[in-house]
Amino acid sequence: MGLDESRVPSVLAIDAGNSKTDVCVVSAAGALLATARGGPFRPHLVGAPAAVASIAPAVDEALGRAGSVELRHVAACLANADLPVEHEALESAIAAIGWAPSCEVVNDTFALLRAGLDTARGVAVICGAGINGTGMLPDGTVVRFAAVGHISGDWGGGGHLWQEAMWWAARAEDGRGPDTALRTALPHHVGLDTMAALIEAVHLGTLPEERCMELTPLLFEVAETGDRVALDVVRRQAAEVVALAATAIRRLGLLGEPVEVVLGGGVLTAGHRQLLDEIDRLLAAEAPGATARVVEAPPILGAALLGLDRIDAAAGAHERLRAEFRGERELAGSG
After folding, report:
1. Are residues 156 and 285 in the same domain?
2. Of 110, 118, 145, 136, whose CA–CA distance to 249 is shortest?
3. Long-range contacts from 167-172, C-beta under 8 angstroms, 24+ separation
4. Single pTM value for the model
5. What's the whole-number mean pLDDT along residues 55-65?
6. Residue 49 belongs to some domain of the structure
7. Count of CB atoms within 10 A of residue 231's CB?
8. What confidence tier does 4 reach under pLDDT thresholds 50, 70, 90?
9. Looking at the structure, do residues 317 and 256 belong to the same domain, yes or no?
């Protein structure tokens, strides 16, 4: 059966993270037809079929808004898709739904890399709820990290930093560690008087996860006051970002050459100057020639561009899509 020429050939792009999922439908000409947002994507906790089913409502919403389209490909950039067995399970789950005749699952770092670069040469580091990095060369060489948490050598990300802040604050309160303003700032932020009360609330689950995550930006606020303990944690986070970037650069054989490092994820896009300045300083020492910059474009753009890469997209489609996303961002900023 031939294609229905009355329907617009399109790709479905998915950028699924630990805190939210973005979906968009893009025509082969590069027009942004529809967007939608869903909840967190956590296949490592619920399994691939259930995780994919959880984002189906957002996909259905986007498809409903897009009008009459013929999906030719699904480009899915997914957090927690770190191991080959996870990629296979997620691709199978997406294929089983049948949104399009083909699909590709990659880690969400590739969405950042594609959103930030026009060529397949560079490195990306995401520091959001967790932390991960990747690198790529035009010949198809790719650098990956397992990025499944502490057991794979990871340190940092918003889900870790609030706990690190609590670790130091707890030791300051009971005398095992140096004093820090975190000792009072953390409990007061959630309406409690002491670290003991905060520890109890977190341990018993009476403080919801989203409130715990609020403690991460508070860590950076305390660091800005010059608090030594908080500053040391921020510097450690910068060192971990640079460790991923510099290692990817070395493994790609680009050490000493000009290479772009694109940064994304909530911790890095929040604009914490101390963190970003420390990253620049450490990267200059570890990988001369490398330059880091925060990508302002949303990762879902990268997923959509990857989708266009996989189909017979019209000439200029990628540039048009980038322009449409710039327009969306400027419109949101003026609201």
Report:
1. yes
2. 136
3. 168/229, 168/230, 168/233, 169/195, 169/198, 170/195, 170/199, 172/229
4. 0.89
5. 96
6. yes
7. 19
8. low
9. no
